[in-house]
Specification:
Oligomer: single chain
Number of helices: 1
Protein name: Porin family protein
Family: Belongs to the Omp25/RopB family.
Keywords: Signal
Largest sheet: 12 strands, antiparallel
Structural class: mainly beta
InterPro entries: OMP-like, OMP/PagP_B-barrel
Number of strands: 14
Organism: Bradyrhizobium sediminis
Shape: elongated
Helix content: under 10%
Order of helices and strands: HEEEEEEEEEEEEEE
Strand content: over 45%
Length: 265
């Protein structure tokens, strides 16, 4: 009996070893490499944000001594102002490969709600007034380089207009201040140049954060001066040359009509 048990045990061990030898080797697989999302910059977008701005100007007063004859009164004076702005924007971009990296070109338009205030001294007089840049709009384009798939650095440029509200001139140190002369609300036309960065935020697909510095230069504009009491021309005018500097930060939501976000291994 003992010999039978030993014989069966040896047979079972031999059979198990032979079966294991006949089985195919077990396949081992590595864990898949994590998939990284690549931002698609092709598409249209809307955005909004806030910023801070400054403006300065060169003002020259002229007296009309005869029809069509203007005589400069004194030296050109420089003044300026500063304040805050809110901005809204819409545009479209196109991403393309070049030189072994990625580039983005686009067009856009934006509108600024502003409150940038300063003091305008009436040249060669004791009069002064509070002047405010109240709004501006721009249309233009940009071109940028993708530093990483999620980070774009770019330059922008285009056409712009800025509106300055009516300015009432008061006698210096007069209490209470009484308007003596004024210039009407005026819109200045010019160009802008800018530079900025835009970054794709990973926690919400389609959401981007953009920050841009912008410089604008406007054409010289002749502003007729009127007498407040009679609303008649005061035979005087101020030629004003204006410049603005601003920095703005916006949240942008992008609609990728150029295709879905792709994966990179």
């Amino acid at each position: 009996m003992k010999k039978l048990v030993v014989t069966l045990s040896a047979f079972a061990a031999f059979s198990g070893s032979a079966l294991a030898a006949d089985m195919a080797p077990r396949a081992y697989t590595k864990a898949p490499v994590p998939v990284a999302a690549v931002v698609n910059w092709t598409g249209c977008y809307v955005g909004g944000g806030f910023g801070f701005g400054m403006w300065n100007q060169e003002n020259t007063r002229y007296n009309d001594v005869a029809p069509g004859v203007r005589v400069q009164a004194g030296e050109t004076a420089t003044t300026g102002g500063r304040g805050y702005l809110g901005t809204v924007q819409a545009g479209c971009d196109y991403q393309f490969p070049a030189l072994g990296t990625g580039f983005v070109v686009g067009v856009f338009g934006d509108y600024d709600f502003a409150s940038m205030k300063g003091t305008l001294n009436y040249p060669v007089s004791t009069l002064y007034g509070d002047e405010k840049l109240s709004s501006a709009w721009s249309v233009g384009g940009r071109i940028g380089w993708l530093v990483t798939p999620s980070l774009l650095t770019y330059f922008s440029g285009g056409y712009t207009e800025a509106t300055f509200d009516r300015t009432d001139f008061h006698v210096n140190l007069a209490v209470p201040p009484v308007s003596v002369n004024y210039i009407n609300q005026q819109t200045y036309k010019g160009y802008f140049l800018g530079a900025g960065d835009e970054y794709a935020l990973s926690f919400l697909p389609g959401l981007f954060w953009k920050t841009e510095y912008r410089f604008s230069e406007f054409n010289t504009k002749t502003n007729p001066v009127y007498t407040t009491a009679t609303n008649t021309y005061a035979d005087s005018s101020i030629d004003s040359k204006k410049y603005t500097h601003s920095i703005r930060s916006e949240l942008v939501y992008r609609f990728n009509w150029g295709g879905p976000v792709v994966a990179k291994y």
